Amino acid sequence: MEKSKGAIEAEISKALTQWEKSYLGRGSLSVKTDILRDMVIVVLNGILTPAEYALCRDKEGLLSIKTTRNGLVESGQEELKQIIFSITGQELISFHTDISTQTGERVMVFKLSGNLEKEPS
């Protein structure tokens, strides 16, 4: 039996939370995953620590936090690629991410080789 779209989304959310905790040493407060055609869009809330919010009060600190946090996630891209492949069965074509230093929210977009919303033939 094939997994439903909702089951795949939940599995990705759970796997990325586990990855954050093991790779980054800290997980987000909440994770929401949505599949849209050939993209997996993940929104992670509660990423920044109180100290990081304090650093973000000026432009230099803000840029430092964005650069450091994005670098950490980018350095784990191979593991993320494997996680997404193991759950979806699709190759990763590209990966995009950014973090909001105002809301502490990270958005990840995984562009896949196939359409996950396509009806099975």
What would you note in describing this structure?
The protein is α+β, with helices and mostly antiparallel strands and 121 residues long. 45% of the residues lie in helices and 26% in strands. It is built from 4 helices and 4 strands. It has helices at residues 5-24, 50-55, 59-75, 77-88; strands spanning 30-36, 39-45, 92-100, 105-112. The protein has a 4-stranded antiparallel β-sheet with strand order 1-2-4-3, covered by helices on one side. Helix 1 (5-24) runs antiparallel to helix 4 (77-88). The radius of gyration is 15 Å and the shape is elongated. It comes from Neobacillus citreus. Residues 5-113 form the Na+-translocating membrane potential-generating system MpsC domain.
Gap from first CA to last CA: 14 Å
Instruction: Name the shape in a single word.
Output: elongated
Number of strands: 4
Mean pLDDT figure = 93
Spans of at least 5 consecutive residues with low confidence: none
Structural class comes to alpha+beta
Strand line-up across the major sheet? 1-2-4-3
Helix content: 40-55%
